[in-house]
Design goal:
This protein has 824 residues and is α/β, with parallel strands linked by helices. 39% of the residues lie in helices and 15% in strands. The longest helix is centred in the middle third of the chain and has 32 residues.
Amino acid sequence: MDMRRNGQTPSDLIQIDKVLQLEERKGYRDDAATNGVARFVGERTARLLTSAGPDMRHRIQKLESLLAEYAELPSPQRQSAVAEARRIVGDLTNRPMQATVAPVVAPRAAKPDTRAPAPARRAPRAAKPTARIGSLADSVRLLPGVGESRAKALAQLGVETVGDLLHLYPRKYIDYGNVQPIASSLFGRLTTIQGTVASIETRRTATGRELVDAVIADGTGRIHAVWFSPWVARQLVPGTPVSLSGRVEQMRGHLVLQNPEWEILGSETLNTGRIIPVYPLVKNISQKGLRPLVRHALDATRALIVEPLPDDLRADEGLLDMGQALEWIHFPVEGPTGDAAANLRAAQQRVAFDQFLALQLGLLSRKHEWQSQPGTAINVNREALSALNERLPFALTGAQRRSLAEILRDMSQPQPMTRLLQGDVGSGKTIVAALAAYAAILDGYQVALMAPTEILAEQHARGLQRVFEALPDDSRPRIGFLTGSVSGAQRTVVYAAAAAGEIDLLIGTHALIQEDVEFANLGLAIIDEQHRFGVEQRASLRGKGVAPDVLVMTATPIPRTLALTLHGDLDVSTLDEMPPGRQPIETYRVDGRQRADAYRFIRGEIESGRQAFIVFPLVEESETVDARAAVAEHERLSGEVFPDLRLGLLHGRMRPAEKDAVMEAFRDHQIDILVSTSVIEVGIDVPNATVMLIDGADRFGLSQLHQFRGRVGRGAQKSYCILISGDTGSDGNARLQAMVDTQDGFKLAQIDLELRGPGDFLGTRQSGLPELDLAMFADVRDLERARAVAERILEEDPNLESARFALIRARMDAFWKRAIVDVS
């Protein structure tokens, strides 16, 4: 005989089992029920004993006595008591004990409102059984409530398997953990109240919308909660115990919670009374619908989550185990290690660490694999290089000499070079690259230089020709040029000359990595603005030779830690010294009321024969973003402010040929003022441009603002940068003031890192790198730690072949399958 009647299990047993499951999940802290596990179980076993037969009474009494002193038990004994109690519940219901499931929604008994009798409540539904998940690769269709329509919506979020759902990380969190009595509720505060629905009514507003107005009471007072969702009135009736979270506002002289999150009080809350996750959404998926799905997935896969890190390594680094990290990253709660916020941070650190570790292992493995190939040791003719150096019209800076020495040292080794040359705008990367190229050419090798745009490739061609003009005719390198606009006949000529070894230095765009391009003896590949190319594109250019040396360059200064993180497959040389004679760019910060003064200043520079940039943050106006847009502003400036001047327009939606044509016209002074979006951040070199006006400067990061400023100050004339911004917070003020105070790109990058964290560097899609989901939560120390651990692992097991690192290798391979290659 069991306690089921007519196929139904008593709700008291269901509630006891749910609370015990929650207690397991929360780590046996005796907070799964409001007044403690012992009282919760005692009240329900007392009711069960009134209807139990003689053969069941002893098991119910044993269940009650087992947990009667639960609050006084140490943690290990609590764990044993809960396990035994759940076994007894399973016996009583004649069913096996299941894995932890989502909480049953069962209201607590509540005193009805004295003003009107409470209507009869429907009995709570029995909880759905836990999904039978056998693998993280199982379809989300196996989870309760996921039919065809919801599965299609989840697929739009990249969620097709249960494992995908576990790794759908929240994009932010809202802290509703501040549970307050109604009497203590303050206007404007985020708060959670827990009470009983005293009354509820639906009415129409003056605009015809249906409004649900509930009065919530908790013994200390009453507060209104309103929703513009009529279905809420069908869910809540007087006498329902509820938890509501939201911001306290005012309506008609009353404090009110407007459209708060709510849920009936039961075993566990997912939407109120705690730090709640906020996920990315698509149509037909809501936060309130997604959170229980994630809860189901966590409960159903608890035994399936495998820890990839060896125990000793995890212990050394003080990291959570992966199962606990996934639990807390979705539903952080207080635990032995700290409060909910601290546990959330620990969970984010753990999951971010795994991503950074996979990134670093992949990059360092690439570097190891590449450098383990037999390369060519280039015989550096120092005498000939010195002769060219002496013919230059300027002396190299100390940073240029140091970086060149590092590059030449690598080139002379039998292993292929993989080096990043980073330097501020105007720091002289081109001449360092020219001398390295000449060293390779002198030893009989060919050199390829790839730039992301045609105009940049042309600038390099002109600049390198000027450098090599200092040499006698018979020792000048033979330079070729190849971009998408090179005609078919001329392209054929270039192909043939490169294949025959008749071109020493071939300069171009990504046309260089097309299948038809062949080199007779490629010894050095140089890639400019390397962040505009993917890892695979760099590999394609390397593949044009037999393990050639690779030098990549960037004019976007970033702190060394981030350089090692983003470019872990590269050694780093830094040009942190500006050549003498480079004029500082006078930088001013003004507000929107001074816009007309800025326009008058620009007009004065144009009348003196100069040119100017005006940069906006958007291409077109947006209803949701309060910022000026380039297309509309170009039209306004052309018609109202500068009708007599020649204005050009440049933005990212234009075709590459159109952008090149506009930039060439500006360079050739056929345009006086170039109105642009951030597309001019990199590339254009117009020595005659002396003013950079950035309208909406508070919407750009420091490094980006510095890149914009670097578009001027390239000639002999004094140059200016004007920052127009609206109201900004403290970080925005600090950012803009830093631009006024310093011209040092590396110092600005460090300030940006300190102000905003590494998320702005790592959170966006890095060309050729897998997306880092948790970069926004990262800390510089997390990056450094992952880098150091990756180096230690590869030192111990260079190919990750041992069983000790098998799971890490699998994670790394899966991570790198998500790599993105940007060919634009």
